[in-house]
Write the structure tokens for this entry.
Amino acid sequence: MQPLQDSYGRVATDLRVSLTDKCNLRCTYCMPAEGLDWMPTSQQLTDDEVVRLIGVAVGHLGVREVRFTGGEPLVRRGLVDIVARTTALDPTVETSLTTNGLGLARTAGALAGAGLHRVNVSLDSVRRDTFTALTRRDRLDDVVAGLAAAAEAGLGPVKVNAVLMRGVNDEQAAELLGWCLERGYELRFIEQMPLDAEHRWTRDDMVTAEEILASLEASYVLTPAEEPRGSAPAERFLVDGGPATVGVIASVTRPFCGDCDRVRLTADGQVRTCLFAREESDLRGALRAGASDEELAERWVVAMRGKAAGHGIDDPTFLQPARPMSAIGG
């Protein structure tokens, strides 16, 4: 077994697998109201191809965590089977799912039965009008039901991911935290990143980690969590002395690239070494041309060596990747 080590000594053990670029919400910070041109089915990895590449990563390259993403992974018909086949791999891996929560009430039990360990659910507001304005869909009740179903199914700790938008929901941080604390969910605020389909992101419009924490501290006492952060993207804080915590993922203003242990596989079989990478390495072509597992593993190792030292958002020459977040996977 050879590790997925880059030229800076970082080793990737956390694989993010995008199962589709399709989504049933139209969040304003992600895609236009009319949606996007979806990936042709012929380009998308089949269920068998997804599982085989995960098997290569686990069996040959030392991956120990697999997170399924999208788009919205719950719209992938083969999701439960893919999860079950992944959790059956040897050696075993920790599995998780990032979802918008629509349909989670219907599938949480099946996913738990397939061996999924936990879920992260995107929820930017618990106010119906704000949720509808941000997502362009009146589906708040479905997300709330999905969160409850995930907790009931044992997919915990259930985590909530929230993005604050200036002038839209940035004054709701403490309200959202209180809502999550009442229900036992772990809240993570994420700085808006330059991954929108329309390339309208600007640093001035982004609500920063400093602003998020200041907003929370108006209602709560926050103290840094004592345990080492390691490669985790969230900086965690005890709320009113704990044990509950809140996290802030400050990819833009407090980058953690030096400790990154993640690698990404897109729904069409491309390796991405960073969310913001502008280059990809094709595994689908080699797989469909008859490459062995060992050959696929070697291609993956070579791709990883090209990982940049950081995302480069602060560099004047920074350009957003051509793919939006929905086509990359979180």
The two ends are 27 Å apart (CA to CA). The first helix runs from residue 47 to 61. The chain has a mean pLDDT of 93.
